[in-house]
Amino acid sequence: LNKVFNGAKRLVPNINRKDVITSYSGLRAAESGGDFIIGPSNKLKGLINVAGIQSPGLSSAPAIAELVTDIAKDIAKNSRFDIQFLLRENYQEKLPKRNIFNESDHDQWQKVVENNPHYGEIICRCEKVTRGEIIKSIHRPIPARSIDAVKRRTRAGTGRCQGGFCGPRVLEILSEELNIPAVEVTKKGRGSEILMAETKDILLKAGENR
To answer: CB within 8 A of 175, min separation 6: which ones?
Structure first.
């Protein structure tokens, strides 16, 4: 981190170390030629390799999904089994349109708020994310079920305070919308619960142990 910071100071001399927020590290497999590996395996029948997908994979994901679907259909066509590809009854080709405060002008947003007052309450001050946007993310076809899921879909918690202000409020909204106790809300799935117990339960238990 020091090496990166010192390098950044050469470009922006007045950069402040206090401006550094969450930093990330990771490991991913890359193909030696730098290209994607997408295609049926030569060794294991029925396996489709989708590997070496680096940063451009985020933009390429829809096209990769279509390509893999076509490869699967070709495999099925040459199979001795009668395999049919049918769409689910609730299949949605496109996700529903969503309102984003940061991408709208005030006149447009006023109409949104008139239709749904939740869009008039800012929950994440850093990224200017409204309660309406968070609730919508929880009830979309691919729903946000954790604090990190809400963060990825709306940017709530990715700003300067890293969720210090909005985190508890997002937790409360998840609890209400999912109709679960606050202690069951997680950061990123089972085993990452934010709260251990309700205060009254801790006090009751402490009283019993006296």
So the answer is: 181, 182, 184, 185
Alpha-carbon gap, residue 167 to 156, rounded angstroms? 8
CB neighbours of residue 14 within 10 Å: 5
Which residue has 């934010």 as its token pair?
194
Q: Which two tokens stand for residue 96?
A: 């529903």
How far apart CA 121 and CA 134 sit, in angstroms, is 11
Instruction: Centre a 10 Å sphere on the Cβ of residue 167 and count the other Cβ atoms it contains.
Output: 20
Rounded Cα gap, residues 36 and 19, in angstroms = 35
The DSSP result for 28-47, as a single string, is ----TTS--EEEE-SSSTT-
Distance between CA atoms of residues 190 and 149, nearest Å: 13
- ∠ CA 39-45-48, nearest 5°, is 25
Q: Are 130 and 101 in contact (CB under 8 A)?
A: yes
Q: What tens-digit pLDDT sequence spans the chain (210 residues)?
A: 889 889 989 999 998 888 777 766 777 778 888 889 999 999 988 899 999 888 888 899 999 999 999 999 888 887 777 778 888 888 877 878 889 998 898 888 999 999 999 999 999 999 999 999 999 999 998 899 999 999 999 999 999 889 999 999 999 999 999 999 999 999 999 999 999 888 877 777 777 766
Cα torsion angle, 137, 107, 125, 9, sign: positive
* pTM, to two decimals: 0.68
